[in-house]
Each structure stands twice: as structure tokens, then as C-alpha cells.
Input
Amino acid sequence: MRFPVTRLRRLRYNGVLRAMVTETKLSVDDFVMPLFVCSGTKVNNPISSMPGNSQLSVDLLVEECKNIVAAGVKSVLLFGIPPHKDEDGSVACEHNGIVQQAIRAIKQEPLTRGLFVIADVCNCEYTVHGHCGTIVDGDVENDLTLVTLARQSVSLAEAGADMIAPSDMMDGRVGVIREQLDANGFYKIPIMAYSAKYASGFYGPFREAAESAPKFGNRATYQMNPANTDEAMREVELDIAEGADIVMVKPALSYLDVIHRVKSEFGMPVAAYNVSGEFSMVKAAEANGWIDGPRVMMEILTSIKRAGADIIITYHAVEAAKILNARSY
Ligand code: PBG
Output
């Protein structure tokens, strides 16, 4: 049936009906809020390129987690800024490492212990050179790096992390981490693998936030070429075979096609990382009065879910949760 019998606007005239036929609905259950933890006490270093986000010492991080819980967000992803760095990222494996301390503090505080704490696993925040692994002959050595990644993962699980999220892009890391977690009794701890992680300019603000910019070269020998999607499918397939429980696409916005393809080809739980640069662009345009920030934020998050993401890691998490909580469609 065609016009005038069929009129698609009939379902758009009434707000209640529009809400009833809404295909994609965001929920606070979808969100993960990334946080940056640094040493000291009462430290709050605002990250200039990411308005509203700061490096926080453990005490203030726990306070921030209370706000996150109050907004209804149920999960956080932790990144550490350690007091000192080394050649191979061993500082990230210390019992009293900065993220280990943060996890214990969150789990000790009655108001925040229910938060689902995801620990990012990577070496770039912990190495003096800023690369994601151990350097041999001027490049990251894959198999040596697997050793520190597995140690870091076990240490974070011991501290109480609820899920481990390797973001380094070394070959074989999911399998090695799974094996070491299991060997240490952590068979219940899932792995969310940054499977299709692209070498992206959108990470710029994060590298200021996490003090993790590489001191030489770039990450093109381990992160993916933004032009490739078949290769992303191979990465995802291998990570699933090695034991990944959730697969991630990162960044999100320029890679919605990849999110869609991963979801439709594998039918796995898919996470998407709405990264720092994607966040900062919205904030910058909003500050200039060029866009309606909250509206664009909700549109972006909806598009990521519509593409096929089950989990959205986003610096907008708390702000978006407040809008969802207040929304009366
Ligand atoms: C590093 C890591 C990065 C991000 C998460 N983990 C940056 C990088 O690869 O340089 C980026 C997150 C963001 O931009 O928000 N292991």
C-alpha cells in the first residue's frame, strides 16, 4: 500500500506513540564510566581537554564513585597513573599498584562496593617510553609483553577487579591471560577484550589524561589500520577462540559499521568505546555554542547502541544517566 493509504507520519504525531515504537532505547545498564586514578590524597587534577573529568587520588575516586552510583551507573573502568614508571610496566603488577589500591578502596566502601569494577590491562601508562609493551630493537616485543600483561591481570583480579579488559593489542594475549587467571583460581572473572582497537587520532585527550603518549613512533605496529574491517573480524574471531567473553570495538563513532558487523557475524556481547576525542569534540562544540551538547550526546549514544553495542564505555555515562533518569518520553 502506498500513499495516501500509507502515511509513516501517523506514528509520529503523538509523543506516547513515538515512544512506544522507539526501536533503540538507551538504558543506564548499558553504561561504563572510565576513571583515572593517581597517587596522593585529595588530588583532583582536571583534564583540560576532557571537561568534567579529572585524575583523582584514591580517596577522591571513591567519592566520585559514590556520585556515579547515585546516578544509577553500575560500572566503572579504571586507568592508573602510577607515581613512577619503568621499562616493561612491572609497576602495574605490584600488589600495591595504584589501580590495585583503588579497587580495594572501592570494594571496602559500603556505598560503592556494588559497582562492577573493570580493570583496563595495558602497559602504556606504566612504561617510561609510553608504548603498550616491552621494547626490543625499537618496537614492542609481542611475546615478552604477554608475560607482564598476564601478571598485571592476575594482580588486578587479586585486588578484587570484577572483569579484566586488555587494551594492548598483542597477539595471543587473551589466551595467556585466561590461562593465568584460571591457574590462579579466577575462572569466574570474565575478559572483555579490546578486540578491534584501531590506531586512532581520537585517543589524543586520553593520552593527556593517562600520561601515556608514546615517546617515540606510534602504535601502528600493534593497533589496527582504520581502513580495515575484514581484519577486525579476524581479530574478533581469534579473541573469541582464546576465551574472550565480551569483544570490543574502539573507537565507536567512526567505526559503527565495524560494531554492526561484529554483532551480526558473531552474535557475541559487544562493547563499544566512545573514546576521549569523541567526547571532547562534543564538549568543545557545545562550549562554542555550535551544538546542543546533551542532545548530540544522546544521539551519539543511541547510534552506538543502534549499531549493535550492548555495552557503551563513555565519559558521558553520568550525564547521560541523569537525562535518562529524568526522561518522561
Ligand atoms: C591504552 C588505551 C588507550 C585508550 C584506552 N586504553 C589509548 C591508546 O591506545 O593510546 C583510549 C581511550 C580513550 O581515548 O578514551 N591502552
The chain has a mean pLDDT of 97.
